[in-house]
Amino acid sequence: MMPLSEYERLMQHGSTADKLIAAPVIEPLPKQAEIVRDCIETARSMGIPLPKTISIAWRYGSRSWEFCRGATRFEYATKRTTVFLDGTLDPNELPRVVYHEVGHTSLFHSGAYLGMTIAEQEMSCDRFAIRALQAEAERAGFFSRAS
Ligand SMILES: [Zn+2]
After folding, report:
1. What is the pLDDT of residue 7?
2. Radius of gyration of the chain (CA)
3. pTM of the full structure
4. With contact defined as beta carbons under 8 Å apart, do 84 and 70 qualify?
5. Residue 100 Cα, ligand 1 centroid: separation in angstroms?
6. Predicted confidence band at 4 (pLDDT cuts at 50, 70, 90)?
7. What is the pLDDT of residue 73?
8. HSE of 71, CA atoms in CB hemisphere, 13 A
9. CB 74 within 8 A of CB 108
10. Residue 138, pLDDT score
11. How far is CA 69 from CA 30, 58, 65, 106, in A?
């Protein structure tokens, strides 16, 4: 794993959530909405703390470096979480982004983010995304273990 300071530098460079959130609204394709539902179901089955409802908001994003592909916003007063997703994302990339944002949702919901730096939160969400993608792949039988 790269040193924290390097990770932090990359995260600052890539911290463009506000641009995605301000981008035009886009309607998801039925398949995109289905992928997101499946991902949230998988995340819940992994036992991480999540609110009963996670609002999903789709935006017309961009592959430009100036745009995040996903972002999560938490309203402290209502405890309502909204996950913003780039509707132009390749469906193959969508699960990784959804799991990362669901990771943020869990950190907010549980309050765990309070004791973490931004870089620690980002690493935690990346690790959760990897675990969730592995869980998905194992369930689908993509891995067969040689003994
Ligand atoms: Zn993040």
Report:
1. 59
2. 15
3. 0.85
4. yes
5. 6
6. low
7. 93
8. 21
9. yes
10. 87
11. 19, 10, 10, 19
125 pLDDT higher than 70: yes
Q: Which is nearest to 41 in space by CA: 125, 132, 146, 143?
A: 132
Q: How far is the CA of 69 from the centre of ligand 1 (A)?
A: 10
How much is the mean pLDDT over the chain? 87
Q: Are 41 and 48 in contact (CB under 8 A)?
A: no
3-class DSSP state of 129: helix
Please give the DSSP secondary-structure letter assigned to residue 71. Answer: E
For the chain, domains (ranges, CATH) are 12-135 (1.10.10)
The DSSP string of 12-45 is HHT--HHHHHHSPB-PPPHHHHHHHHHHHHHHHH
Mean pLDDT on 112-139:
93
pLDDT reported for residue 13: 46
Contacting residues for 35 by C-beta, under 8 A, at least 6 apart: 91, 94, 95, 98
Q: What's the 54 CA to ligand 1 centre distance in angstroms?
A: 16
Question: 103 CA distance to ligand 1 centroid (A)?
Answer: 8
Residue 66 alpha carbon to ligand 1 centre in Å: 15
d(CA 65, CA 33): 25
